Amino acid sequence: GQNIDQPTEMTATEGAIVQINCTYQTSGFNGLFWYQQHAGEAPTFLSYNVLDGLEEKGRFSSFLSRSKGYSYLLLKELQMKDSASYLCAVKGDYKLSFGAGTTVTVRA
Amino acid sequence: SQTIHQWPATLVQPVGSPLSLECTVEGTSNPNLYWYRQAAGRGLQLLFYSVGIGQISSEVPQNLSASRPQDRQFILSSKKLLLSDSGFYLCAWSAGTGGGYEQYFGPGTRLTVT
After folding, report:
1. Which of A71, A95, A97 to mutate: most B Cβ within 10 Å?
2. Count of CB atoms within 10 A of residue B73's CB?
3. What is the DSSP letter of A80?
4. Are B97 and A44 an interchain contact pair (Cβ–Cβ within 8 Å)?
5. Contact assessment for residue B13 and residue B100, using Cβ atoms and an 8 Å cutoff
6. Which pLDDT score is estimated for B2?
7. How many CA atoms lie within 13 A of B44 on its CB side?
8. How crowded is residue B25: how many other Cβ atoms within 10 Å of its Cβ?
9. Could you say which of A11, A37, B10, B100 is the most buried, measured as most Cβ atoms within 10 Å of its Cβ?
10. Which residues of chain B does A84 touch, with a Cβ-Cβ cutoff of 8 Å?
11. Is A24:A31 a contact under the CB 8 Å cutoff?
12. Which of A14-23, A69-78, A87-96, B68-77 has the lowest mean pLDDT?
């Protein structure tokens, strides 16, 4: 089975940096995805990691350590529009398993 | 470019009534299709997935069913809704089943069972 843990909520100030951690225990591993979901909307794809290390995409970066079952999503230069839920998802043998999501609130 | 449509956007149904939610994908062939449900404040739960016409895999035993009558059409149904069926239903597609294939989500249907 899959067990994916991430914090429920985080709050940060506009312009700051926030790091969202995700730990997982899975029966198979074919990559880890991060999605952003604004309230009432569908999730949108942010990043994908399959090898250890850091992947950078503009203000967003994602890190993976397969041996530790650990990933984080780093959001830099926070903007008000970054207030959303961030979902960690692990690809097993054939499907994605999602964590419950971390709600990030950006304050002015 | 590829687009994914879902309808209706919102739905209020009484307990015991039937359900039919439709999802269609444009701009791609032979997509993998998925139905998820998201309860309030919870993560996404995979309900069904399909790798081809007529091929449906069920993840969670419940009173829901899915069908794929055409390559780019995925339908979620129920004969009799339960209160616990309330939630945000999301259809998604991917180009393949491997790890590098991200899933793209439709706009979702918010279902309230009363």
Report:
1. A95
2. 14
3. G
4. no
5. no
6. 86
7. 29
8. 21
9. A37
10. none
11. no
12. A87-96
